[in-house]
Amino acid sequence: MSERDAPFSQQLEDWLGSDEPKTLGALGDVVAEKSFAVTILVLMFVPALPAPTGGVTHVFELITMLVAFEMIIGRTTLWIPARLASRGLGPVTTGKAVPFMIRWIRRAERHSNRRGATLFGQRWLVSLIGLIVLLFALGAALAPPFSGLDTFPALGAVGVALAIILEDVVVLAVATVLGLVGLLITITLGATIVRLLRGLLG
Questions:
Q1: Which of 76, 127, 133, 183 shows its CA 20 to 30 Å from the CA of 35?
Q2: E strands present in the chain
Q3: DSSP-derived 3-state class of residue 3
């Protein structure tokens, strides 16, 4: 089996164990055709964790919005600022987050059947996915700090990225629905929290 034919989780694991620089740019070069999805997955993984982040993940969400915009306008190669592309992912990401994602992707690969795989090469669907990811990343970014509400839309973005990797429209549909529900929860509870804070401070 060639490296290109290997399951995506194996390609990611091989890169993690290699001597290649552990940066977003290097990761994008390795995964090539999946660079948009993997970048979104890595960036939105931390906001998707069920713990308040205090707004420290806003830079991840902003970069995700940039990636999503590139998908919307039809770019076929990922571009992110050189400074960010060359920045190391850090020991927490490479030592814990990426290995966790590899295990998660591997489990998903066992149950995915690449349903509707050819659709992921269609320009209209790529743009639609970009719009969905943009919406989820924006929802996560606008969630009140320390509320933990950014988890819900961020999980939707992670699920959509996974659907691209697996090329499975069923996973895409489920992730989109869950993300939209999460976005609604974020907006509803976020508005309630803001009103309570205004009442306390007013």
A1: 183
A2: none
A3: coil
